[in-house]
Amino acid sequence: MSFSPLIQDLIDAFRVLPGVGPKTAQRMAFHLLERDRQGANTLSAALTLAADKVGHCACCRTLSENELCEICADNRRDETQICVLESPVDMLAIEQTGGFNGGYFVLMGHLSPIDGVGPDDLGLDQLFKRLESGTVKEMILATNPTVEGEATAHFIAEQIKHLDIRVTRIAHGVPVGGELEYVDGGTLAHAMAGRRAMN
Amino acid sequence: MSYQVEAQAAYVLHTRPYRETSLLVDLFTLEQGKVSVVVKGARSPRSRMRAMMQPFTPLQINLRGRHELKTLLQAEAVAAPVFLKGDALICGLYVNELLERLLQPADPHPHLYVFYQYVLNELLAATDIELALRTFEQKLLQQLGFQFDVQACQPEAIYRYEPSRGFISVRQLSDALKPLCFSGDQLIGIVAEEYHRPEIRRAAKRLMRLALETQLGNRPLRSRELLQGYRPKG
Question: Does residue A49 fall inside a structural domain?
Fold first, then answer.
């Protein structure tokens, strides 16, 4: 049995979501149509609005419906520090720690030559312009501790060598509450190499 | 019939996300050459595979599968990962990009595997990266069945490099031809790997680039752009 075209379209539309296969898509579609028409309307209105209005912050490139995102627009933030990240979710993670009060720059990815992702795709000219304006005193490179993330961090640091900006890289280490025995060799080697004096 | 490989030495060349929590990984293995595998659950937060499926980590792996895309059953790091830093890291990505682009799936190159280990060690030591890269490029071309034939070359003569025909003697050197031309002395030096001579190094860089370009077709290597530094477009 095949569904009528409108239902089939709805099922196919749900499949764009990550982790949603044909069966889940079908369940979602029928739930909305059978039990929750109100929810379906709210969902569709929210989707349309978000897809139309959400763009990138002109300053840090994170997702935002305003010209400047909330953090960039906030004048209580410390403009002399800037934290460079791979994705908006990373920004959320750092914000939740509450330990950082500077600005951000979101690359929306990392350099990956084999996938064809180069400096132009990460908005680096925008980052360099912001650094060249002179307000930033420290740049914290918080790209992921993967080979590509490391390469991205190195590449950015290399390009701004001529500027008088302190460039730092987030530390690698053992997770809080972890046991050394179960930590993978790579992390442990990094943690040993990046050890700190206690006296 | 199921096909299984056990305790194979391998390095990760490249990974990309697959489905919700898995990875598609291209491996360079000692006995099978380049192999693509699915690593199930590698992207879930608690996966032990996550840290291992990084380039430049020497692994020992078990695989299964009948088709071109295999399933990774097990992987173990046999030594500490090679932590490349700075330009050596970008050069490592360049070497991986070369292998990713030029090796055919399931075409074994055990000699090249050894040279790959050599180049990684040299990149780690970072004493003479250029020498290591030139040596590796020449070995790679040789393994792909691409020899530089310089037997007929005279040291004083000038030769033009023609990818399909080899080295052709040139009488009159014009400016347009210059980037394609080498002296016989340079060519003999390159094949003999006399990289301690600076002019041989420069010529080797040029020759390898020309030879690799023909193999790569018209899609340039992206990692090379990274080494040349950033120049905004427009």
Answer: yes
- The residue among B46, B56, B89, B227 with the most chain A CBs within 10 A of its CB, best to mutate, is B89
Average pLDDT on A30-49 reads: 95
What is the residue range of A48's domain?
5-53
Partner-chain residue, chosen from B20, B97, B230, that has the shortest CB–CB distance to A114: B97
The residue of chain A nearest to residue B232, with distances taken between CA atoms, is: A125
Task: Evaluate whether residue A115 is within a structural domain.
Answer: yes
Angle separating helix axes A124-132 and A147-159, nearest 10 degrees: 40
pLDDT digit string, tens, across residues A87-98: 999 999 999 999
Query: Cα separations (Å) of B166 from B134, B146, B174, B189?
Result: 19, 10, 19, 16
Q: Do B14 and A125 touch (CB under 8 A)?
A: no
Q: Tens of pLDDT along B74-95?
A: 999 898 788 898 889 999 999 9
**In this predicted structure, what is the pLDDT of residue B1?**
44
pTM of the model: 0.87
Q: Hey, of A16, A107, A114, which one would you mutate to test binding to chain B, going by the most B CBs within 10 A of its CB?
A: A114
Place of tokens 């084999």: A114
Residue range B86-229 in CATH 1.10.390.10: no
Entry field: residues in chain A: 199
CATH number for the domain that contains residue A102 = 3.40.1360.10
